[in-house]
Amino acid sequence: AQSVTQLDSQVPVFEEAPVELRCNYSSSVSVYLFWYVQYPNQGLQLLLKYLSGSTLVESINGFEAEFNKSQTSFHLRKPSVHISDTAEYFCAVSYNTDKLIFGTGTRLQVFP
Amino acid sequence: ETGVTQTPRHLVMGMTNKKSLKCEQHLGHNAMYWYKQSAKKPLELMFVYSLEERVENNSVPSRFSPECPNSSHLFLHLHTLQPEDSALYLCASSPFTDSPYEQYFGPGTRLTVT
After folding, report:
1. How far is CA B63 from CA A27, B19, B76, in A?
2. φ, ψ for residue A94 (rounded to 5)?
3. Beta bridge partners of A4
4. Running DSSP on this structure, what letter comes out for residue B67?
5. What ranges make up the beta strands (E) of B1-114?
6. Which pLDDT does position B46 carry in this prediction?
7. A-side interface with B, Cβ within 8 Å?
8. Average pLDDT of the residues in B88-105
9. Minimal C-alpha gap between A53 and chain B (Å)
10. Spatial CA neighbour of B5 closest among B69, B92, B76, B114
């Protein structure tokens, strides 16, 4: 079955430290990958996406994710986090359809 | 208004009540979605509408009834709900034909069933 796994339900980190949020998906020939962020009391916002081309994609606020086909992963990284990055992060996959399959989310908690 | 809006933002209802959730998108998109977000679970896709026609219904109980009168508006009518239906209900839209894989979400309606 098609699935997305976010192994870490919570990731605590101090401000200015690096962070990696892990995402793995079940293998497929053609796949499109997304990271969404949800701030408290808000809906999901698209953070970045991989559709084709360069396997490294970046967001405007310093996050990046790398599509690794051999490891079926799309981990999200940021070299130095801010307090304002505290939120829930969702990895999502589309297997060549309009439907998105979401992971269970990772709560990133940034401490001062 | 821009993006995707949802009203009300919070709703408390008894099990015998009837209420409706409203979603409106101002993006000119062709597809709209209802999701249920419960704690510790992945987002559950409930309904998909494309050009005002329902194209997906993921075995959702009949106490949830969607309505899409036009491509900008989506409703979720609720009746005789159960306490386990308490959750955040998210609406989303997508261009569908131009970029079928990217969805834009509203802020959600926090529903509590008592």
Report:
1. 36, 11, 10
2. -120, 125
3. A25
4. E
5. 4-7, 10-13, 18-25, 31-37, 44-50, 53-57, 64-70, 73-79, 87-94, 104-105, 109-113
6. 93
7. 4, 9, 32, 34, 36, 41-46, 49, 51, 90, 94, 97-105
8. 80
9. 16
10. B92
**Rounded distance between C-alpha atoms, residue B100 and residue A42, angstroms:** 23
**End-to-end distance of chain B based on CA atoms, in angstroms?**
32
Residue corresponding to tokens 């979605």: B33
Please count the other Cβ atoms lying within 10 Å of the Cβ belonging to residue B103.
28
Residue B21 has pLDDT above 70, yes or no: yes
Distance set, CA A43 to CA A71, B37, B41, B90 (Å): 30, 10, 16, 7
Asked whether the beta carbons of A54 and A30 are under 8 A apart, the reply is: no
B31 C-beta neighbours (distance < 10 Å), count = 23
Please name the member of B41, B100, B104 whose beta carbon is closest to the beta carbon of A98. Answer: B100
Amino acid code (one letter) for A74: F
Where is A35: in which H helix or E strand?
A: strand A32-38
Please tell me what DSSP assigns to residue A83. G
Q: Quick check: helix, strand or coil at residue B82?
A: coil
* φ, ψ (nearest 5 deg) of residue B83: -55, -35
Comparing CB atoms, the residue among A4, A44, A98 nearest residue B90 is: A44
Task: Name the amino acid, one letter, at A58.
Answer: E
Average pLDDT across chain B, whole number = 89
Q: What is the pLDDT of residues A48-82, one digit of tens each?
A: 999 888 889 999 889 999 999 999 999 999 999 99
